Amino acid sequence: MLHPPLDQGFTIASVAIRNRVVLAPMSGVTDLPFRQLAFRYGAGLVVTEMVASRELVFNAAESWSRLKGAGLTPHMVQLAGREPRWMAEAAKIAEANGANIIDINMGCPAKKVIGGYAGSALMREPEVALALIEATVKAVSIPVTVKMRLGWDDTSINAPELSRRAESAGVQAITIHGRTRMQFYEGRADWDAIARVRDAISIPLIANGDVETKADAAEILRRSGANAVMLGRGCQGRPWHAGVLAGHQGPKAAEIPDVAVEHYRLMMEHYGADVGVRHARKHVAWYLDRHGAVLSAQEKTAVMTSKDPEFVARSLHEALAKAVCAPQEEAA
């Protein structure tokens, strides 16, 4: 099956997407600073962290922080919840605050989320999921999309049927992560299984799961018949990577220390130093691990536990500047 070039644009309803490589919504990862860098380096579309719908309606500070788009266009906001009224109200708030697309989270496997019967737990209750979708679609004038998994477990693969019904309810695109909820992130994503969703819908399909390289992206498109690919964990420690797969130039090896420190400083500005230092630790670790920093365990611990932003920024830059990064790694 022929697949479209990754650098070619596509549309979700009337919203133009500049290429076919999408940055996945990852809670605690794809905050505004991460998305700003990913979009600057060429990601076709970036999606907010999961925004809890009820908390947004009731003005929770964290939800409002996650909602921010800072001029990124299109601005795609992912909402999570279980109750149609809160999803509808949250969608209205997101649209009023600049959202161009609303995405409904039906794929998150985290215990905290499914414990509230949201995320991938909705796949066990199709009628509840459809009521949620219908309420959200009716609430806004912008496109609504859904991200889901193949099913709850291997005995309940219902993504094709749910996707078909979602399209009938007015959804304008579907993203499928090629695992069940019970797999979490174990094993390999089943790219062939995503093709059964392609057979069930006519709207754009975005394929997600284990995409790291350009070869992976081409293969998942070929095997799934999807219109675009979505990258998640492969972008940790390299927010430019989605853009690289779409044909854009990532930073040269010598520039990575500056990008990492810029990312760190953007997080300090976004969260404030007290909160930002804690939120940034995982990103610092990903940069150090991925780019081969020459640090002893003791030195790394000192960087990771420090509450001094200037010390962390300086140490991160120095460590990455010592690293030897092969330029071809970023073009994989």
From TrEMBL:
The keyword Nucleotide-binding applies. It is an enzyme of class 1 (oxidoreductase). Its cofactor is FMN. Transmembrane segments: none annotated. Residues 23-293 form the DUS-like FMN-binding domain. The active site is at C108. It catalyses: a 5,6-dihydrouridine in tRNA + NADP(+) = a uridine in tRNA + NADPH + H(+); a 5,6-dihydrouridine in tRNA + NAD(+) = a uridine in tRNA + NADH + H(+). Belongs to the dus family. Its EC number is 1.3.1.-. The keyword Aminoacyl-tRNA synthetase does not apply. It holds the Pfam family Dus. Catalyzes the synthesis of 5,6-dihydrouridine (D), a modified base found in the D-loop of most tRNAs, via the reduction of the C5-C6 double bond in target uridines. GO terms for molecular function: flavin adenine dinucleotide binding; tRNA binding; tRNA dihydrouridine synthase activity. This is tRNA-dihydrouridine synthase. InterPro entries: Aldolase_TIM (IPR013785), DUS-like_FMN-bd (IPR035587), DUS_fam (IPR001269), DusB-like (IPR004652), tRNA-dHydroUridine_Synthase_C (IPR024036), tRNA_hU_synthase_CS (IPR018517). It comes from Allorhizobium terrae. FMN binds at Q78, K147, H177, G232, R233.
